[in-house]
Structures are given as structure tokens and as C-alpha cells.
Amino acid sequence: MARTGLTRTALATVALSVPAVGMLAVPVAAHAAPLAPNLPQMMAPHPVAPVQPTTLNSELAAYAKTLEGVPYVFGGTSRAGFDCSGLTQFVYHHFGKNITRTADGQFHEFRAISKADARPGDLLFFHVSSDPNSYVYHVAVYEGGNNIVVASTGAGRVILQSYTWAGNTVTFGTITH
Q1: 174: closest CA among 106, 73, 101?
Q2: What total number of domains does the chain contain?
Q3: Are 27 and 16 in contact (CB under 8 A)?
């Protein structure tokens, strides 16, 4: 009897495996579990990471990174060489935002914001003291976290670096949000 059951199952498997004209042949295993319980799992959509919208700020930050390696040149405002405010002015001008030329001038042109409200692409200003209204001697493009893209005299080129060395003498500014 067990032999007869196996024979019937084997014959059914062979019969279902042989294609008929105009029909799709689907092999069926002798001990296959029914498909119906698996259908909801198989048909469930796979989770997809949400696409982040491109913003002016994210474009500013990404563009600033493409300028890494450009030489530092005092008074420089082009890909031939940048100083700090020449770099920030160049990045913003690339996206149709005309900003003033000097670090202190840019500070007065931008709206002060907290670090919590800062977005990559905003500017980071370096002051001569911890007074947030003191003179600004240096500026960089904020990249998020503790990182900036800056025309560095010490490195002799545009680099990505942490700004934490400046302690409490920095402020953030925006003209985009």
C-alpha cells in the first residue's frame, strides 16, 4: 500500500511535469507545502528606503566637497585657488546666490541660527572671541555633525575637517531656510 501511494505520487509528479500544448508546466514536489499560506509573504512589498528630496542646502554641501584639494590662495575666488570666503562665495554663486566677499560681511548677511537648526550647506563662522557678535575672521561650509569644508591655510588647500578645534568661538548662519 505504501508502494502504491508513492507510485501514484510519482506518477502525478511526472504527469504534472510534462508540458501540454499551450499550457505551462509546473513541477510539483511530492511533499511540497501548499502555496497559498506563502502567498501573502511572497507578495508583500519589500521595504524601500525613502528617497531624500534634494534641497539647495544639500546641493551646496555636496558641491563644496567637490572642491576638496583646490589650493589655498590668499584672496582666491576660483578653482585656481580659494581663501575661506572666496570658497563660500564661489559655492553659493554656483547656485545663483550672490553673497558678499569677506567672512565678516557674510556673517552680517546671513541669519544666525543654532547648531540644532543648522543644515549641511549653511555657513560656519569663526569669531575672534566667544562673543557671537565679535569680528569674524574665518568661514566655512557646514557639512553636518562636526565637519566643514574649508580653505585651510595650514593644509594649503580646501579640505574636509572638524571645526571643534575652535571651541565656543563659532556660530552658524543661513540664507536658505
Answers
A1: 106
A2: 2
A3: yes
